[in-house]
Amino acid sequence: LKFYRNHEIEEIAEARLRELEKELGKPLSPPIPIDILAEKVLGLDFLWDSIEELPGEQILGGLIPKRRLIVLNEKYQKLFNEKPGLEYFTKGHEMGHWDLFIDKSSLDNPSLFTGGDECAFARRRSNSGDIDIIKKLQGDPDGRELLRKFNERADDPDEARSVNRYSAALSMPKQLIREEALKIDRTHWPNLYQLAEKFNVTISALKVRLMQLKLLHIDESGKLHDSPDAVTGQGKLSF
Ligand SMILES: [Zn+2]
């Protein structure tokens, strides 16, 4: 398994965003059209289909590398409509698997690509948080054969971290989100909700991203601060 440092993931995502910009022929502005990035830059397609779940679990989407296909669980179409940021993040997450961890050169060579046709990543949700698995799936009766049998395997936690970081970096490009975040008072939730809407991300994804970029801090009492330094008042003098 490849290991990526955060700054490497940011660089890969930024290079993809530049390719997208070229494709669009104009500067990027929020929300970033990551669907177009998936299709035009990464060469992936999207498909809505049913994904079988174990009792109590929630699988939002998956990736079928050999088909260059991101599958979204049609069962959650309504949830995704209500929370577009969730659909958006799920897409970015699966794109991250593709861009960071799939060896494209081995895809068309069955003897090299161990996962074969029957391998897919699925984003599995549980009460203890998001985990990633490769899971047994069943296609629906009229036979979309691509959702046949998948092997069960948990995503490496580091792989999950990496693809989530990638998703965040694509949907909230560092410079753009910084620019927008600096315009607002980040110590008030309504402002953050507005910003999340602008970038088509969930409030939790925005929160994590702003904290990654040191543009937000939440103390033990749940109070918002506009940076980690704001709490101690040490500012740039701290070492
Ligand atoms: Zn995953």
What secondary-structure arrangement, pairings included, does this model have?
Layout (H helix, E strand, L loop, with lengths): L5 H19 L9 H8 L3 E5 L8 E7 L4 E5 L3 H6 L1 H18 L2 H4 L13 E6 L2 E6 L18 E2 L2 H15 L2 H9 L6 H10 L4 H10 L4 E2 L5 E2 L2 H5 L7
Parallel strand pairs: 1-3
Antiparallel strand pairs: 2-3, 2-4, 4-5, 5-6, 7-8
The structure holds zinc ion (ZN).
Zinc ion binds next to helix 4, strand 4 and helix 6.
Write up this protein.
The chain has 239 residues and is α+β, with helices and mostly antiparallel strands. The chain contains ten helices and eight strands. Strands 1-3-2-4-5-6 form a six-stranded mixed beta sheet, with helices on one face. Strands 7-8 form a two-stranded antiparallel ribbon. Helix 1 (6-24) packs parallel to helix 6 and helix 8 (189-198) crosses helix 9. Residues 112-120 and 125-154 have low confidence and may be disordered. Zinc ion binds next to helix 4, strand 4 and helix 6.
The beta-strand count equals 8
Kindly provide the radius of gyration, computed on alpha-carbon positions and rounded to a whole number of angstroms. Answer: 19 Å
Give the quaternary arrangement of the chains: single chain
Nearest-integer average pLDDT: 80
Distance between the termini: 34 Å
User: Could you name the ranges where pLDDT drops below 50 across 5 or more consecutive residues?
Assistant: 112-120, 125-154
Helix-strand topology string: HHEEEHHHEEEHHHHEEH
Number of helices: 10
Helix content class: 40-55%
- Amount of beta strand: 5-15%
Ligand inventory reads: zinc ion
Major beta sheet summary: 6 strands, mixed
Principal-axis shape equals: globular
Structural class, judged by helices and strands?
alpha+beta
Strand order, largest beta sheet:
1-3-2-4-5-6
